[in-house]
Design a protein that fits this description.
Layout (H helix, E strand, L loop, with lengths): L3 H11 L6 H44 L6 H17 L10 H5 L2 H9 L1 H19 L51
Length: about 180
């Protein structure tokens, strides 16, 4: 996930020297908490959308391979997707905690999927949802929410082609402009 403090620091560094730093400090003291909350919400929303797209693609690939799931299995798969999206990875041990335990835990999951199939499903879901979470495959250390480094392992600079605006897809977690309109 893109870090709020890093994004804020990049935004401050990109400001024109003519912008009074006292005005920036006042803005952040008055609206910083709301800005952080909006940033966190946007990050979660983007991560959830990416996970939903990846999950539906995974289901489509499973159907093409001849693997169909019934309603009970689809419900469990959706719970697994939500858990992986929230914490980054699902283990079989985790099926005996939280929302899984309330629905019968690992024993119920084994009855629904079969021991071997359950392990394969969890591993496949982990691989699918983790691979969509970062552009670099994890070399930059960001596990959930997208790193924006596009495979280099290093985050991209905010300044691109002499502009201080973010290019689409570079830092998808936040689409926010403060104090001015972004030129197209």
């Amino acid at each position: 996930m893109v870090d709020f403090d890093d994004t804020l620091a990049r935004w401050q560094a990109s400001l024109s020297p003519q912008v009074p730093r006292t005005a920036v400090a006042q803005f952040l003291s008055e609206d910083g908490a709301a800005l952080r909350e909006a940033f966190d919400h946007a990050s979660r929303t983007v991560r959830e959308r990416r996970a939903a797209r990846a999950f539906h693609g995974w289901l489509d690939r499973q159907a093409l391979a001849g693997r169909d799931f019934d309603d009970a299995q689809l419900h469990w798969l959706d719970l697994m997707r939500q858990d992986i999206t929230a914490i980054g990875e699902l283990s079989l041990d985790r099926l005996n905690h939280g929302p899984f335990l309330a629905r019968g835990g690992e024993d119920k999951a084994v009855r629904l999927f079969g021991r071997r199939t359950l392990g394969e499903v969890v591993a496949s879901l982990n691989a699918t949802l983790a691979s969509m979470a970062t552009a670099c495959g994890g070399t930059c250390g960001v596990k959930v929410g997208g790193c924006g480094c596009s495979g280099s392992g290093k985050p991209k600079s905010v300044e691109t082609a002499g502009s201080t605006t973010l290019e689409p897809g570079e830092y998808e977690a936040l689409e926010l402009t403060v104090g001015r309109e972004v030129e197209a």
